[in-house]
Design brief:
Number of strands: 7
Largest sheet: 5 strands, parallel
CATH class: Alpha Beta
Number of helices: 7
Strand content: 5-15%
Shape: globular
Number of domains: 1
Radius of gyration: 17 Å
Mean pLDDT: 94
CATH superfamily: P-loop containing nucleotide triphosphate hydrolases
Length: 209
Amino acid sequence: MTSSTVVIVIAGPSGAGKSTQIKQLLQRLGNANALRLDSYTSSSVYPESAKWIDDGADPNEFKIPRLDEDVLMLKNGKPVLDPDSGIEIKPAPFLILEEPFGRGREALRDLIDFVVYVDTPLEVAYIRKLARKTDFLPWEDNPERFMTNLRSNIEWYQRVGRRFYLAVSERVRRDCDLIVDGMRSTEQLMDEIIKNLETKYDLPDRRSA
């Protein structure tokens, strides 16, 4: 049976603006769901970055079984539980997915319909990431923790992080449907994404919403 759910992936380095694009795309599409990678961290297994690169940068070494299962269930018209809230997510015409490797992981390759790569200069994306207040970088809420983690993260980025993001980017670009300029405004990016989706899918007209 052919699935009626279109799976759209938004990929790009940390700080590229994926969360903003996903939020905007949800609004523009209307009847859509989104699954975000951060929600599945506790049930996932990731390799050590430097070793992963040295061993050939195989996306399949990133094990995210619950995300893979949830995508499959929704694609097949079955509900899943939100990993954060436990609230039921019912299938919708569109599923927007944050998946760093695009079609790179075998578990999701055949379930994905359209991949957008947000192409943002790595240093710009990295500065954006550092500028966000998070539990890891709490800024003025906890200056001591902030400085400790900032130094640690900068050291990681210089040692292996930049190479890591380049390896991920190279893999996504091999088989994506659209590359957008992450330096453009949110509105410009969304207009370009919607324009390209409209060439393949029947989208609702929500421009006045």
